[in-house]
Every structure is written in C-alpha cells, then in structure tokens.
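Stage V sporulation protein AD
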Amino acid sequence: MITITGKATLTYDQPPRILEAASIVGQKEGDGPLSHLFDCIEPDPKFGKNTWEEAESELQLRTARKVLEKSGMTEEQIRYLFAGDLLAQGIATSYGIMELQIPLFGLYGACSTCGESLGLASITVAGGAADCVMALTSSHFASAEKEFRFPLEYAGQRPLSTTWTVTGSGAFVIAAEEHPCSTQAHCCISGITTGKVVDYGIKDSMHMGAAMAPAAADTIRQHLIDTGRDVSDYDRIITGDLGSIGQTILKDLLSDCGILLGDLHEDCGMLIFDPDTQDTHAGGSGCGCAATTLAAYILPRLIRGEWKRVLFLPTGALLSKVSFNEGQSIPGIAHAVVLEHC
C-alpha cells in the first residue's frame, strides 16, 4: 500500500527492501577516503575500451553484473531496470546494459538520477507492479567533461568552486517485502519526496553547488512539512553533490526557514574525495558520486544498525551544452529517499 503524504511525499506500509548494492569506481576515487569500501577500483580510466563513452558503458555493465552476483539473482529475475547517466540521450546506459535484456526505464535527472531511480523503483515494487527491480546509474569524469565543458585535451583551468565528476557506478536490487530474499535484507525504502525544478538564476557551469543547493533546501523543507518530522528524526541528512560551497549555501537557506541541520548533514561530494590530498576543489559530483557513496558508505551503516533512519538527497543541475551556450540559467532538482534499518 502506498500512502500519499502531503504535497510531494509517498510512504509505504510495506517498505521495499534493498537486497544488495554494488559500487565500482575509478582510480582517483579509489585513492580517496572511501577506498576500502568500494567493491572494485579500476585503474584503467577507459575500462579497456576505445572511447570515454564506451568506458562508461562498460563501467555500468560491470556494476549491474556485480550487484546481480552479490544478490545471487539473474537478469531474468529482474522485472525492470531504472537507469540513467549524464550523457546525451543516455547513451552510456542504453549501450551499456543492452546485452542484459532487462526491460528498461531510461532516466535523466542529472546528478540526482540515483534518487530518481530509487524512487521510481520503490513505487513500482510497493505498488505491486514488480517483485524485484534494479536501480542503476553512472558517471565518468572524462565523458562528462567532453559532454558539458571541453575535451580533456583543452586543458582548461578549473576554479576553486568547481566539483570533480566522479568516475563510478552504483547499482541496487530492490524487492518487495514478501520476496523470499527479503528476510536477509536489513535496509528498506520507507518513503520518498519528489523534488521540483528550482531556479535561482545561476549561470556558472563551474559552480554546481550554488545551482543545486536551493533545490536541496526546497526538498528538505517540503519533506519535513509533508511528514511532520524534524531533522532530529534522522541520524543523517545526506545530499549527493553539493560539495563544500554548496553545503554552506544549503545550511544558510534552511536556516532562513528555521531549519538547522548542524552536524546531521553530510554530502557525498565531500565524503568521496580528500580535500587535503586530492585536487578536486569543492568536492565530487556526477551521477556516480551519490550512487557509489550510498552503496559503499551509507547502506552498510544502516544495515549494521549504526544509523536507523537516513534522508538521502541526490542533487542534480539540469543544464545541457545547448542551454548553457544559449545563455540559459542552470536549474536544480533534488529527490529525497527515506532509508531505514529493518
């Protein structure tokens, strides 16, 4: 049973379970603070392929296979796949998972795609349309730079406000509570709050934190209104890709609304890289940032019971090379997923 709660929130009487998660990252991410938590660290940035786009497709395919291996499932047991990436027309996804032959919902939510895929996957399972689905997303530093800015050969200078697109992919198998494998699962999705497009007029593509922070603030505020909860009802509130500058903006915006995050807030972009030893400036971003951090760092703590409830908010900047070159601003969006120990 799905319950409509407030303006933008859904809650589940029988929360879908996260059976298993997998994460594969590149070498730079593997040199960061979470290195010991990832399933695999690939030293070859091209993943054995000829182009950056092919590399990201291979990355996503390997991660999908890894989560199937860890969960003991086969492709035939997955009813639907909810997946996306940052590239035009979602080519990393469509070329990457083609051979799996799982019915696909291709998604684009920029760096918020992990939240979007988990949200839609949980609705599908909780609503009885499938008993077992997969959520999957990826990003790659070089393919993203080529898509949104300049090829690496351009050697452009990066301002301190910029974030580093994570080379990584995260995959999640989600099943109904009555699924035979769910008895072994200790983390569930108890609800979601779907974000809306928020535009503060930011036009700097090197300042993604400023573009996305207003959307994160809006979704957190709406979630608390819809549920009647306070931030203290969560062990952590974790955004996806704001970085250090975006975190400051988020806290300022929420403080103006009387919402004080304090030490409850963490950001995946700040967790995945070490600012003292890695030249990533404001932190990490990209679809793979939130996804790999969720799989490697957040879910294990929920599964062990160290945290009981987490509000997870991947954040996305909704720009394209066309919109940017035409002088349009960069709207943001953030989708919240309530994760609980069970």
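thats it. The mean pLDDT is 94. Residues 13-180 form a domain with the Peroxisomal Thiolase; Chain A, domain 1 fold (CATH 3.40.47.40). bye
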